[in-house]
């Protein structure tokens, strides 16, 4: 009873949050159109050509851009992320309308081109979407939110194929493309209503909350106090504040002769200081504009006044210039990869997740062999998929509670272990066992994915979230395709019971590795 109450309360907290509710609504709406389109694209090509290979090429076009995730993810760190989501959704909506021109096998090049752009935009969209979550949802609710997001996605995967198949059968593929376009427009409107959480303002390219090093001002601008400590020479103190009105001090009153005006700029003779006099070479102020003598150039070396010191160090939040940031695009990509693979909190989860998804690909290739062992027709695989989706929906509702109680590593490890046991039990040719294993796989497999994504959102600096998230998606999901190829090669020569038990046992290895690490 207590667990049920806690789960209900956490879900209610997320749904009561205005921005979290809007974001979830956007996920549901766009997921409906996307899931329908992804299914119908292959059916559309199959009807036009009769070729299984050309139909399978649709999936290749959609998934291939995932391999470029580390590069594409850098785009999600440059513009304002909310604006990027809205622009991407509207652009895809317009692009999908071109599919009304597809009516014959000779038009399939257009469908493939749209699907390739669709997949590429999806990689960027998912990275920006995940990064935006960190600025719209309170950190204590990230686990609950990600669980609900997974529940929404899995629910759409169960409903959308039915809606897409019905529309396709009645009106054709272009109508499904129109549904997807409308869903993107609706999602863009919902994202436009999402507000940022205070203290996490989105930043443009190369900008940060405090983008100017301490003690420096832009040419021609008035001097502003920096947030960090500044040397006594250029920071007025509480005992002797300096302004243009009260600059004279008790020790050296100033008169009309030595007060500079707009017509008589200050010089070294009429600029008194507290302890050490400053000259025009080393003390430009807001009142005395910089000149060629007092502005460091490429020929004149920088001094202690214009180089950040221990009191004002450069950080990742400082402005990007040619002096402190590599300009190559590869360096930006490597920065995200390096952060993901060197952080001791993220690396074990990503490696375990990638291994798990590799094995899930092998297991996915066995589905029709499992159905055959039950003595059922291939259509029975649909029922097993429904059971798996139901398991994912249930675990999504309890994810936040379990993450708080178990932590990210144990939550992921227990989910992987549950998946391994379920895969091994698929060797038993029984309908009830097969349905139960499907539900258990659906409940266990997403645990490592949600745990990893939540950890990335919690432990990654905001300006790196886009590229780190996209890299994580690549390392997590790309191995699935490799696993499917391995499973396809093994399912014929190796008996199903042997293969199921072996794959299930291997699942326990990444689970044990996560539990061993503290």
TrEMBL record:
Positions of region (Disordered): 200-338
Amino acid composition bias (Basic and acidic residues), ranges on this chain: 224-233
Membrane disposition: Multi-pass membrane protein
Main location class: membrane
Bilayer-spanning residue ranges: 21-41, 53-76, 83-102, 108-124, 131-148, 168-194, 349-371, 383-404, 411-427, 433-456, 468-490, 496-515
Pfam families linked to this entry: MFS_1
Compartments (UniProt record): Cell membrane
Protein keywords: Cell membrane, Membrane, Transmembrane, Transmembrane helix
Name of this protein: MFS transporter
Species name: Streptomyces gottesmaniae
């Amino acid at each position: 009873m207590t667990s049920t109450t806690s789960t209900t309360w956490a879900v209610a907290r997320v749904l009561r949050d205005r921005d979290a509710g809007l974001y979830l609504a956007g996920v549901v709406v766009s997921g409906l159109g996307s899931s329908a389109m992804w299914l119908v694209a292959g059916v559309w090509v199959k009807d036009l050509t009769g070729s299984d290979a050309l139909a399978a090429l649709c999936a290749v076009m959609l998934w291939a851009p995932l391999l470029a995730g580390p590069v594409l993810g850098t785009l999600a760190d440059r513009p304002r992320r909310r604006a990027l989501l809205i622009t991407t959704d509207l652009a895809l909506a317009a692009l999908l309308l071109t599919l009304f021109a597809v009516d014959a096998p000779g038009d399939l090049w257009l469908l493939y081109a749209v699907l390739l752009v669709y997949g590429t935009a999806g990689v960027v969209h998912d990275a920006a979407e995940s990064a935006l979550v960190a600025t719209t949802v309170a950190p204590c609710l990230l686990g609950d939110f990600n669980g609900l997001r997974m529940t929404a996605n899995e629910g759409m995967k169960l409903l959308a194929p039915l809606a897409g198949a019905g529309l396709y059968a009645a009106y054709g593929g272009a109508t499904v493309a129109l549904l997807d376009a409308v869903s993107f427009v609706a999602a863009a409107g919902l994202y436009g209503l999402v507000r940022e959480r205070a203290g996490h303002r989105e930043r443009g390219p190369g900008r940060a909350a405090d983008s100017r090093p301490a003690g420096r001002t832009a040419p021609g601008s008035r001097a502003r106090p920096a947030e960090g400590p500044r040397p006594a020479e250029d920071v007025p103190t509480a005992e002797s504040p300096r302004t243009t009105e009260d600059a004279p001090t008790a020790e050296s009153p100033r008169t009309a002769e030595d007060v500079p005006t707009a017509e008589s700029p200050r010089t070294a003779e009429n600029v008194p200081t507290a302890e050490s006099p400053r000259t025009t070479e080393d003390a430009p102020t807001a009142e005395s504009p910089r000149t060629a003598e007092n502005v460091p150039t490429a020929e004149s070396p920088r001094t202690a006044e214009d180089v950040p010191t221990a009191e004002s160090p450069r950080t990742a939040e400082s402005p990007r210039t040619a002096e402190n940031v590599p300009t190559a695009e590869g360096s930006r990509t490597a920065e995200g990869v390096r952060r993901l693979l060197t952080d001791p909190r993220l690396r074990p989860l990503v490696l375990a997740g990638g291994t798990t998804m590799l094995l899930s690909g092998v297991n996915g290739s066995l589905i029709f062999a499992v159905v055959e062992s039950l003595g059922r027709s291939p259509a029975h695989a649909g029922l097993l998929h429904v059971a798996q989706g139901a398991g994912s929906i249930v675990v999504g509702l309890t994810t936040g509670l379990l993450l708080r109680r178990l932590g990210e590593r144990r939550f992921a490890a227990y989910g992987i272990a549950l998946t391994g046991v379920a895969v091994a039990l698929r060797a038993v040719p029984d309908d009830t066992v097969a349905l139960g294993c499907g539900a258990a796989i659906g409940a266990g497999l997403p645990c490592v994915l949600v745990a990893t994504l939540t950890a990335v959102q919690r432990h990654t600096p905001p300006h790196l979230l886009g590229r780190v998230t996209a890299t994580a998606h690549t390392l997590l999901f790309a191995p699935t395709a490799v696993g499917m190829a391995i499973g396809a090669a093994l399912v014929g020569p190796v008996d199903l019971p042997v293969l199921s038990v072996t794959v299930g046992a291997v699942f326990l290895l990444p689970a044990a590795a996560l539990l061993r690490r503290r």
